[in-house]
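ok, trying the design again with the full structure, not the truncated one.
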């Protein structure tokens, strides 16, 4: 470290870069006025405070985002658990893995998004011999793109699925569903496939389904 001679009202200044000391000016004299030295010190302190505030703000945003992700993930898990409660017969034990001790993305028949942590994008229980009603909680899985419950023994009426705006494929064929086809299905504007055949549904097909551009 080098230090030149300074006047009475001046102070030597050294700059730390990467942990090593460097002089910002010539070796003969590296001095600034004491006033400027004081202002440089205040600037450094303020920069440190600003950095701490920025880090605190970023940490707060991160925690809020993570909390939101956990809440959404929990919502999907609870919705699936409600769906399973409406199942009255499961001869193959398909839903044995559906318990809170296992991540719901690992449950049989469940596929989760790779981009959105914990959000369910597919439910496939085709030909599992399960019986029961289709719980309205299915309509809370707002990231669903594919639902295939075909070749089972689901009965009762088809619940409202009007919140499933991302849903592209709904296959419920070969069940025992009755009642009418709800008009709320027309809110699922991304439908590409709807198969409700071989059920006991009555009434007319909602006219607005014909207006869906992807069908």
């Amino acid at each position: 470290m080098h230090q030149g001679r300074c006047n009475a009202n001046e102070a030597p200044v050294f700059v730390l870069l990467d942990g090593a000391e460097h002089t910002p000016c010539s070796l003969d004299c590296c001095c600034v006025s004491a006033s400027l030295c004081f202002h440089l010190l205040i600037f450094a302190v303020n920069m440190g405070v600003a950095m701490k505030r920025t880090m605190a703000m970023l940490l707060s945003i991160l925690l809020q985002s993570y909390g939101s992700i956990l809440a959404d993930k929990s919502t999907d898990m609870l919705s699936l658990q409600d769906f399973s409660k409406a199942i009255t017969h499961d001869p193959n034990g398909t839903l044995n893995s559906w318990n809170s001790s296992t991540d719901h993305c690992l449950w049989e028949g469940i596929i989760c998004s790779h981009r959105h942590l914990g959000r369910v994008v597919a439910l496939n229980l085709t030909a599992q011999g399960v019986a029961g009603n289709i719980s309205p909680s299915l309509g809370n899985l707002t990231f669903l793109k594919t639902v295939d419950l075909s070749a089972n023994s689901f009965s009762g009426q088809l619940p409202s699925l009007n919140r499933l705006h991302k849903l592209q494929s709904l296959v419920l064929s070969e069940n025992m569903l009755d009642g009418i086809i709800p008009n709320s299905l027309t809110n699922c504007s991304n439908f590409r496939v709807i198969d409700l055949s071989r059920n006991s549904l009555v009434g007319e097909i909602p006219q607005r389904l014909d207006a869906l551009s992807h069908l």
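Keeping the full-length input from now on. The radius of gyration is 32 Å.
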